[in-house]
Specification:
Length: 64
């Protein structure tokens, strides 16, 4: 469970930190992934697209 301490009554800052920690843990993407059923072919297609996107990112980073 993600926890954030509120310092000096600054609730806005604590909420911002909490959202960052939750996003870093991958909770929103996991919820989105579990919203519905994807057929196996769709899963493969999406995995291939993600792989292509990640490869392009890596190649771009190596060029700079």
């Amino acid at each position: 469970m993600t926890q954030v301490a509120v310092k000096n009554g600054n609730l806005d800052f604590a909420l911002k930190k909490f959202k960052q920690k939750v996003a870093r843990d991958g909770v929103p993407s996991e919820c989105k992934k579990r919203e519905g059923y994807d057929k196996p072919g769709v899963k493969r297609r999406n995995a291939k697209k993600e792989g292509i996107k990640n490869t392009r990112k890596r190649n771009k980073a190596n060029r700079d």
